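Review this chain:
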Amino acid sequence: MRSAKRAARVREVQERLLQVRVSELEEAARRREAVHQARDAWSGRLMEAAAPRQASISSAEWTLWQHWAAFVAGRVAELGNQLDAAERKVEQCREATLDQWKWAKTWGMLEERAAEEERHCRERREEKDREEAFLLRLAGERGEG
């Protein structure tokens, strides 16, 4: 009964961890998509802002404007990549923590099993000692009589 309750609790915790993991992955995907959209939006806005002026500015200025737009888009992409790398690092730490939790849980179960086995062996030893004492008493009574 005790192990059934423990197994139910373990399943419940694992399900909660899985739900948290799924929601975190979904949130990371939403953030990543927002970064990509922001990068595209900035690049597009810069080009839209420059488009009406394209006819009135020199080709060197237009090229400079395009380079500036590419730089801003590249910087936003770089920040997005840094965000992705940070999220991967957090995920690695979370998985390491989960592995440690699983190991601790397994270690606890092993300790519990060892204590149970030790108790069982002690009970068998006590039972054998009682049987031996009974047999010695019985043999002593027969020897006297």
